[in-house]
Amino acid sequence: MVEFLVIAVSLHVILHVCMISILNGFIFTLVLHLSGQVDIICQEFENISKHILLHRFSIPSFGILIEKHNKVISFSENIEQLFSFIGLMQVVWITLVICCLGFVLIISIHNKTGVFALVKTMIAYLAIAMEVFMICFSGEYLSSKGKSIARATYETPWYDMPSNQSKILIFIMMRSQKRLAITAGKMMDMSFETFTS
């Protein structure tokens, strides 16, 4: 019976680790895809800057950029909607596991069970902390990429443009102030600040 229990628990842990790895990999893939789209938009703003300096610029280029920017924002909102509840469950689960590991660590120190139990607990704690760091890193990376659109828009030579074209840039900058983020249950942003707290 004990052997069957050990096999069942081992299989459960292996399946759990595989599921969490696939889920985190999916989140990272979506965030990297979205950041690639943001990089494309920023590159097009740099191209617009070169065309403005050569006086070969037309307004339809802004329309394409606005459309791409709206797609990036809606894709970010879809990612947020998809992973908000999953992120909340991961934060709650990780908090409970960290509390239990702290309890096991205190019991191990009190009962003087040896170095092996302390090392095993610390390795489990580091694995959980690494998972939290990866989720928070993806949220922070997405947020910083969202800010780069406003920066790229501001760095275009808007002062050399006609006023009707420079007004379009103001709307793009205002729209890019909307923060791209991954949250846990729409309660807290997954960022480095969340990781440290």
From TrEMBL:
Membrane topology: Multi-pass membrane protein
Record keywords, A-Z: Cell membrane, Membrane, Olfaction, Receptor, Sensory transduction, Transducer, Transmembrane, Transmembrane helix
Cleaved signal peptide residues: none
Main location: membrane
GO cellular component: plasma membrane
Source organism, top-level taxon: Eukaryota
Positions of transmembrane segments: 6-32, 82-110, 122-142
Compartments, as annotated in UniProt: Cell membrane
PANTHER family named among the record's database cross-references: ODORANT RECEPTOR, ODORANT RECEPTOR 19A-RELATED
Name of the protein: Odorant receptor 22c-like
Source organism of this protein record: Temnothorax curvispinosus
